User: Fold these one by one.
Assistant:
Number 1:
Amino acid sequence: MACMGVCRGFTQHHGGSWLLLAFNLLWISAAQSFHVSRQFAPAQPSNPELTYKTYYFNQKVDHFGFVEDSLFKQRYLVADSHWKKPGGPILFYTGNEGDIALFCNNTGFMWDVAEELGAMLVFAEHRYYGESMPFGDLSYSDPKYLNYLTSEQALADFAVLIRYLKESIDGARDSPVIAIGGSYGGMLAAWFRMLYPHVVVGALASSAPIWQFEDLVPCNTYYQIVTNDFKKSGPGCSESILNSWAAINHMSETSDGLQWLSNAFHLCSPLKSKEDVGAFKGWLSETWVSLAMVDYPYPANFLEPLPAWPIEVVCKFLNSPKSSEKELLQNIFQAVNVYYNYTGTAQCLNTSQTASGSLGDLGWSYQACTEMVMPFCSDGVTDMFEPRTWDLQAYSDDCYKQWGVRPRATWITTAYGGKNITTHRNIIFSNGGLDPWSAGGVKESLGDSLVAIVIPEGAHHLDLRSNNAYDPKSVLVARSLEVELMKKWIWEAGNN
Ligand SMILES: *[C@@H]1O[C@H](CO)[C@@H](O)[C@H](O)[C@H]1NC(C)=O
Ligand SMILES: *[C@@H]1O[C@H](CO)[C@@H](O)[C@H](O)[C@H]1NC(C)=O
Ligand SMILES: *[C@@H]1O[C@H](CO)[C@@H](O)[C@H](O)[C@H]1NC(C)=O
Ligand SMILES: *[C@@H]1O[C@H](CO)[C@@H](O)[C@H](O)[C@H]1NC(C)=O
């Protein structure tokens, strides 16, 4: 399975590093959790039909050199039933690390506002994901084929595609285009506006951690946010999780203890070695992080259906941090079961099954090993995780082993400006207060037209999800401000 190789490789190296695993989740909860949520959402307002057409554009494999002159088919999806032509706006989703249909289906916000804005919706797939493979089945087979998997190439794809759409679609020549994205897609939306201001009039970058690089933000804020989510969701909750690590370590000292742990957690494969225990702890950590990302106010779906405010439900099991080791760990088991066995159908818990074994993980792992070097750390004092420092050298060595390449940790800020972005205009940065990824987000406006919106009760890009009867007021306010700003950009585009 794709992810296993990657995850295991890293796990063994950092003695259970969950750092790399964490970014893989960017798109999982971005997309998959939305996915079935429509079905479980209690009082859904009329959802527009998800009808779109699929197209393929002959895209250059390499926009920046002239030797590799081949083409590949980039997939994009178009929904134009509300488009007011000629000249009506185009909302352009800057696809991130996954199948574009997933993002299309699950970015309910775009579907919800299309009619009001008279907008065409376009969802463009990111190269090396979904069906958009530059070298077909060979794309992931060798580092030389992966060489064109960069954010710059992806942004150039978007620019070339938009130019083509405006030239080829009747009535689109003067259409203002707005970039929209969430997570890594949000980073791309913001960077797209920065690099190609003549192509898009503005960008909505939701839950986009554009500052989770180098030392632009402290490396431990991410885990502190996760911790706070648990701390405020029930008494003793974060403390129970903090205490669980020592209990696990103590239990793991003997083979009887390992056996006990394996049974207590109903694990599919029993823990046998130190590496297994590292992977087990990594899996638990990842579960807590995932819960923070999907802590939505209404039932949603991840691996399995989740209740509304899942962390509160989890914390009901974690109110006695001082209980005996075995009791504490049994409570932890009950808590993770909310995540993995809410419907009561799980046969056993599989510690290799955290995110998904899809190609999305693999591609992101490569991107994390080249451009997307995001430092994370924890200290077990200001957060509830085991202490772990950020070690770029070890990270780089792991990348070299895995991919035959070494990361360039300073490239992203060099290319896109890091914090020096105040000369740009018309970008909205929205972040949820519950979302660990808000750690690397822009949470204060950087001027009139670089607008930060914080949604205190929001998890990972709640604003991009469909309207829901249980939405907190703060996300309704955020969405209406987003629509107002988009209307302003559209109006300005037509009046200058
Ligand atoms: C997206 O939605 C369409 C229509 O509802 C469905 O057929 C398709 O399987 C979905 N694709 C994904 C990747 O979710
Ligand atoms: C999942 O829940 C059901 C019903 O409570 C239980 O019988 C089963 O053992 C649980 N599975 C795991 C892996 O704990
Ligand atoms: C655990 O998950 C991995 C990855 O999805 C899979 O390959 C493996 O077969 C699963 N193991 C069991 C016992 O279900
Ligand atoms: C941003 O500006 C500061 C102060 O002028 C400078 O020290 C820093 O190197 C700049 N960063 C980038 C990425 O250009």
Number 2:
Amino acid sequence: MFSSKEEFKEVFVKNLESETGKTKDQATEQDAYRALSHLVRERLLQKWKETEQAYQTSGKKQVYYFSMEFLMGRLLGNNLLNMGVLNVVEEGLMDLGLTLPILEEKEADAGLGNGGLGRLAACFLDSLASLRLAGHGVGLRYRNGMFTQRFVNGQQVELPDHWLQDGYMWEVRRDEAAVEVQFGGEIESYEDKDGDLHFTYKNSQSIRAVPYDLPVVGYEEKSVNTLRLWSAEPAEEDLLNKAQIEQAHGNFIGHQRDLEEITSFLYPDDSHEEGKKLRLKQEYFLVSAGLQSIIAQFEELDLPWTDFSERVALHINDTHPALIVPELMRIFMDVKGLGWEEAWSITQSSVSYTNHTTLSEALETWPVDVIRTLVPRIFMIIEEINERFCQSLWEQDPGDFDRIAQLAIIADGTVKMAHLSIVGSHSVNGVARLHTDILKKREMKAFYEAFPERFNNKTNGITHRRWLLHANPSLSELITNTVGEGWKRQPNRMKELLAYREDGTFLDELHQIKQQNKVNLAQWIEKDHGIAVNPDSIFDVHIKRLHGYKRQLLNALHIMHLYNELKANPSKEMTPRTFIFGAKAAPGYYFAKKVIKLINTIAEVVNHDPDTKDTIKVVFMEDYSVSLAEKIIPATNVSEQISTASKEASGTGNMKLMMNGALTLGTMDGANVEIHEAVGNDAIYTFGLSSEEVLSYYQTGIYDAMEMYNHDKRIRRVVDQLYHYSPFSKGDTTFHELYHALITHNDEYFLLKDFNSYVAAQEEISHDYLNQRKWNEMSLLNIAHSGAFSSDYTIQNYADDIWKISEAKMLNG
Ligand SMILES: *Cc1c(COP(=O)(O)O)cnc(C)c1O
């Protein structure tokens, strides 16, 4: 279809005119976006069908990645890239007076996730399809994704994200695959004539789950996998019994709205569990709908149930879909008539689980009563799983009550979803080497000792297609021109760039590309935020969710410190810097919102003070999202990865930035440890406490923030500026909470402890940046070693070690 530019232009214009009834010159950019997406979609549908058939007939195992979040971002550009027609289309549009990146902006950014966890799921889908692995996503079609962030007086305001408003080009509704999910009611049991126990539901509420499928195109269009997003609607029987419902619920519309509420919005909390009943409803809805459709597909194969785990792998992304375990048991036993032992063995060999955090506030637990009322049969099964599990522990080690109490799934009136996930799976993995070590040695030590063979590490990754090929075409072109095309399929081959680390011409080209990307970002910042930034300054970037442990406040304190130094001595030599932030705070996270207000206040002050404005600029970009990340990352010099050691399980932003030639300024935390190992000590800036030191402070409780404050003038100065009259506080009490977090509550995240080593590392950066030759060489080292962090390798490891799936041959080669 798009084999040549001319051909594309012809088809495109024809399509545009017939769809809109306008001439090419009358059509708007929105029209052009839709016409182009339509063309792409049509071509995909054919490939999609072929892929599905090939998977069904190949007899290969398929993996289903269950996740409450998929942070997909925009799809048009990525689909064109993976279909191999990006250049043809871009040039063709140019002839027609259209610019592809502008059309891409017309697409809604699918923000069905909070941050790293959801973006990981999206990168994994891209890698699965690109490796021709039969792997699909299972998620929820929230009608409101992650909120849109605006700043009013420097404070965050949340606006609803109606991303489906103009219709979404990439989804296909599949009415024929709808299923029903049951909530509430009572369970009645009876024995049949053979003495087998059966369970029936009384007064339960039935909700219709309708799937919307999104095609996931692999690189070079090798296969088109599926992301299936479920939407809640009133059940058919409800529609037929409208009159009765009017009577029972007062009004039908209200009742309908209650049902649809299940998929109405994404919970906007990252690394924090809300514990709301609606959230549990969402989780069970995802699990039950997803499993019913997978089982229906398996049944079409006409195989015995004992083959299930040879054809199906079920992965749970964090504990949110942990109800897969009891729901699968329910379907096998209550619907398909299997016995407990057989159902349990199939369940365990099908399910695997990824742990994403050791933060206690993120651990998911549910009060027994909540689960019992919402999904009574599921609760019975969890109880039985727990009984049998505790029994087996007793048999292993009779009399060790402590161990049983520690490992039990149900304890103190709550259900521990992590325990349920571990007990019900054959594999448990952490997301970076350090994180997995902490799981084994500390957080899940007792489980690790009980089932050492279940535990393994899979360091996170990112798709180099979106984050390099698409986000940074000029750098990609330079790489290809230098080492050939091979790295696109084998990203590790970016290492061939190492041969050019002393090549002045190459390093200059690298520099030019970074400069141009910085100029582009500077223009964007000027247009969007009205702030003029200097493209020759260091672009120092801190983009990720706003969270105490991610320590945006430490970055802010450092900027306050620089301001103080410049004010004390306006002629002080300082390498110019632009500090760029992007971060959303959970709407109820008071501390995080104060940090946003502080950074915006600092920006107000330093951007306008004649003593500082030419040396430091601060920009907090609104509404951090996948598309904004794609703009910022190629223009970054310094990547801030400054979490309190032991707290960031992996991080993936660190990998995206490294791949685009930024130098990491980081603690030895999460995957920073592996980045450090890959690039070597001379191409990264590390600082701060080690994870061992942090964990031991937590254990001994001997850290004293007040001591840091009392004994260090620089620290005292910035901390006082939060509390007392200062250019930032203006005598207001706005930042008192931040002061209290640091002093009254003893600085839970060790900002003051790490302050001096952070400042020292920043000074080293300012010094090193002046030696452009050295800086460019370090940048090259980062790019060259970044291929190892492609999610293609991560996914290959999941496929080999956990899912046991291999490449599917397409019918047409
Ligand atoms: C990659 C990404 C994240 C994760 O960033 P971390 O720095 O690893 O926390 C969050 N949000 C978006 C939009 C991303 O693209």
Number 3:
Amino acid sequence: MYVSSFIPFLNRHNKRRKFYIDARCHPQTIAVVQTRANYTGVITELKLPHEMDFSGKDVSGVLFQYPDTEGKVEDFSELIERAHQNGTLACCATDLLALCILKPPGEFGVDVVLGSSQRFGVPLCYGGPHAAFFAVKENLVRMMPGRMVGVTRDANGKEVYRLALQTREQHIRRDKATSNICTAQALLANMAAMYGVYHGSDGLKDIARRVHNATLILAEGLRRAGHKLHHDLFFDTLTVTCGCSVKEVLDRAALRKINVRIYSDGKLGVSLDETVNEKDLDDILWIFGCESSAELVAEGMGEETKGILSTSFKRTSKFLTHQVFNSYHSETNIVRYMKRLENKDISLVHSMIPLGSCTMKLNSSAELAPISWKEFASIHPFVPLDQAQGYQQLFKDLEKDLCEITGYDKISFQPNSGAQGEYAGLAAIKAYLNAKGERHRSVCLIPRSAHGTNPASAQMAGMKIQPIEVDKNGSIDISHLKAMVDKHKENLAAIMITYPSTNGVFEEEIADVCDLIHKHGGQVYLDGANMNAQVGLCRPGDYGSDVSHLNLHKTFCIPHGGGGPGMGPIGVKKHLAPYLPTHPVIKIQTDKDACPLGTVSAAPWGSSAILPISWVYIKTMGAKGLKHASEIAILNANYMAKRLEKHYKILFRGVRGYVAHEFILDTRPFKKTANVEAVDLAKRLQDYGYLSVCKGELQEGRDRLFRRDCGDRIRGNGFKHKEGTFRLDIRKKSFTMRV
Ligand SMILES: *Cc1c(COP(=O)(O)O)cnc(C)c1O
């Protein structure tokens, strides 16, 4: 969850350095926000509303949660008014299902509303993937990161939607970007949207009412059994002080295989969701020693018990009024609607996708099958570890394999994307340097060719960015690098490098570059998004890197068409292991000298539920297969470069004349000669449904390459072979620049 996406509002030049957090937010939300604020130099203070003083006009924002972590529904209008009077923005974390029947935060003056859309039909998934949402008042819209969809008219005057801003912010604004998010949760956002489309506002209200009614019945039963409820107004969550022994309740809960939240002061918490049925209520009542069944309790309650629906918190405004939410309420209709949308897409099942996503691989059905198993999908991220031993085993296996592949010593699975991995890895570097007493080290060297997320992440980790020039071969300009290292040697924190470079070249000097940085007290962050050209062949940990993220949604087969989900675990050398992320609810840092950088995701192991995909990929490929896939990727890129070199200029090659796993064709001359641009070529390729399939014997093809004699039996762009899956990528100044 990108719960902390709203932090960009606290821009660095703002004089208001303070940010208040209501102590009754979820602990994981507090941890993520505190960590994020810590690296950007914002001072957070944990308080209750009545303790919050805005009069110094030094507070930029205040975050509270509605309903709060104990389930309480409360009126925040007075707090918001005080905040607004002093120029402070009000941010509210909330629950979408509750808002179907609760007065929404926008109606009591909140400026920024955020939360998870998991409750809209997405399984718990041991923490993720889930899409977060983030909504603002009209006056703040232009400050939101990411891309906007606008309504416009097409050539025939029909209303259509289009992207208003086509390029991601971090690629244009680099270190000035307000967000580093690249891979997001597009698939999950679509799932939640379809849940809304299918149920419509009436259906959603029914679901919310049902959950609330079940909670009211439970509350009544618990009161009758002599327990104390902490809050009178709630939606789906109760906080209880037991009238009997807590141990007795917990023992009975274990018998019925029900988990309750246990607070440090002995209070217990119970939350219900859409799936709750009468049997569940009976079980929970029994656990708490209530003599009656849910039915009997309900009978005794009568009609007048309506909970929040009989208070001023009841929602009166309409929502989801657009036609799309009021048209597809049967299974056949929603399926036809989804199919109609799908038919508008050009995807790999039709054609090549001219998308520069580096080394995204095709994935097999066998890799995807396990993620729908309930053992992976229906498990809460905060269950006791002994209930999630399968996951724990999977994490261990995957960590071991990824360490072996990368040459690192420890992996953190908390980051949900490559960009989030960058932020976590750089924060680990910062935490390490701080612990060494070198807090002043904050300069991060980043070549101009780096992916846009690099400078954006470095900025989020509180570093100052020094760009490094690129030479005519597309490699780091070593003399400029040396000059900048010398200039910043006192304050050098890190270098972020991509290897093979973004221009598709294995740089000869990589080990020397790492040495140079280390000699001057800096750390090396190697952007491992594109391990495609390295897996099985070379390891960042061996040639001198200290930390990398791996894009499991590129090199390790998690499908991420449409923009996400992804997983961006980071690997680190031993000395950085103590600084890896921690979690406020589940103990995940096992290093005995742990001194964690903080928390980067609300879920302890990020988007755990998609890790089985990479696990299956690695296990089915095996060491030989993985290496073979890398070789084939490099072979194909070189084959294509060779075949095309007579017709196009190949922009960059290594000193030996070879490219890595990708290369750049210069199409700029055609602009002059034929008024044809890269985007025209890309579209023409699509017209031809360009997706060629590997037909040749791979071994034979590889031998030919080594004899510098490329036959034409291996062709490939996005092809798949039974022993390995790989994709050749032709990007940047070629086909993707303007797409
Ligand atoms: C894709 C990519 C990233 C960003 O990864 P996300 O998962 O999209 O955040 C960073 N660096 C490089 C080189 C990449 O290709």
Number 4:
Amino acid sequence: TTATFYFRDLGAQISWVTVFLTEYGGPLLLYLMFYFRVPFIYAPKYDFTTSKHWVVHLACMCHSFHYLKRLLETLFVHRFSHGTMPLRNIFKNCTYYWGFAAWMAYYINHPLYTPPTIYGEQQVRIALIIFLFCQVGNFSIHIALRNLRPPGSKTRKIPYPTKNPFTWIFLLVSCPNYTYEVSLRPLGTDLG
Ligand SMILES: *[C@@H]1O[C@H](CO)[C@@H](O)[C@H](O)[C@H]1NC(C)=O
Ligand SMILES: *[C@@H]1O[C@H](CO)[C@@H](O)[C@H](O)[C@H]1NC(C)=O
């Protein structure tokens, strides 16, 4: 009879999966709008023209691949322990992701863009290799973490290296969040 019950209203909730899909779907579509130079972004004479630099097309492939991977991982790899998060978070997160995607895409796909000159194609090739290496590393960690949690459960276990060398980083840290993120700056751009 003397107990007091406190509770906190966290406001409207939205599922994590919805948040992730909105966060990652936006940059994918926004980037492509700049890539295809839809009207009202650059001068009208450039509408629907394509860049003559192959690195611009490569950047579009890398960017799209990155976000497709994140979307597919959200749907098929990650096992979320929390069902929902506050609705307001989606506005905060989307401002960040969508804003940066548009900012990058504007310059990379600009009709006056010039490819890197100092190290030229060498720079692009090395950046691409690092990019691919880190995408595989990132994916490996996500698979390893997924396998620690049986379907439908919320268990948390300590991750250990598996046979996949990309997961050997678990020898040093248990949550190598963002370890492979360093790669997402290839081609002189930040794809993170
Ligand atoms: C880092 O990764 C772990 C395991 O996936 C996760 O529980 C944790 O929330 C992550 N931390 C951040 C800051 O993202
Ligand atoms: C993998 O990439 C995603 C998205 O860029 C990032 O949130 C995550 O922390 C990265 N994980 C690792 C292990 O680098």
